[in-house]
Design a protein that fits this description.
Elements lengths: L1 H26 L3 E7 L2 E8 L9 E4 L22 E4 L18 H16 L3 E6 L1 H12 L4 E7 L9 H10 L5 H12 L4 H4 L2 H8 L2 H8 L9 H5 L5 E6 L8 H9 L4 E5 L6 H4 L1 H15 L11
Parallel strand pairs: 3-4, 3-5, 5-6, 6-7, 7-8
Antiparallel strand pairs: 1-2, 2-4
Helix pairs in contact: 1-7, 2-3, 5-7
Length: about 300
Amino acid sequence: MLGRLFTPLSAASIPLIYGLSHRALLRLGATSHERRLAGICAHYYAMPARGAGTLPLLLLHGIADRAQTWSFVMPRLTTIGPVYALDLAGFGRSGFPPGQRYATIDQQVALVQAMIREVIGQPTLIVGNSMGGWIAVRVALATPELVAGLVLLAPGGAILRGRESWEPFLQTITLPDGRTARRVLQQMYGRPPLPLYLAGEGLRSIFRRDPVMQFVASVDENAMLRAEDLQALRVPVALIWGEADHFIPRESRDFFCSNLPQARVLFLPRCGHMPQQQRPRAVAAFIGEFARAIAGSQPVGQPES
């Protein structure tokens, strides 16, 4: 009886959290926009710059997530310049490519390129978490003239040993049962906040949607990142890793750090795969310092207290 009552409550908790974070962003001064970009009805949030900062930032979420994941960080970055948080294709309030129920990495790259060209209008500091970091690297490789720099938070997409090295991860995120969902939350957050830990059924429903399941089933090794891709980057790069992150293969961190030896790196103790949610002050301060380094006297975000 308790299980039958708890399951629908758990499933309803994630939409509730998203609704609250949407309203919170609007109260904090964000505006919500829809625009057709790269053939997709895309949704994004925008916050104007505070002060003299002019370097725009574009925030990209990870798989099964949405733009609201940046709600704790976004207001802290507005002293750098205007800040945009995009719902990637098929996630949040953004639609799918025509005739599809998921988007490939190449289609996500095209969406981000259109966002920078048609909405932002100048080279942009891209901040990407997990799959968002993978997409950000691909954008910088294809169109470096659109990118002022990259900040990658636990980025995904490393080729490692090919698809076989990702099979345990790909199998896990199908979330076959509530126990697996709770284990994934622990892998992502270390010690997840109680509301999220109780939201296992809601997490399962998100990860089992077409944009995730069909994307996972169709992952193309040719789109994954190789050592020579990282070494070919010609824009400034910074990396952020949570030391308690067990969500993606652990060797991913070594792959990025060893192939981007000039990158600035921030390691966060007692932090998992979502630094933007767990350590927003530290993340914003680090991004601010990086922005100052690439933009000279550019005003920066608030330091961690």
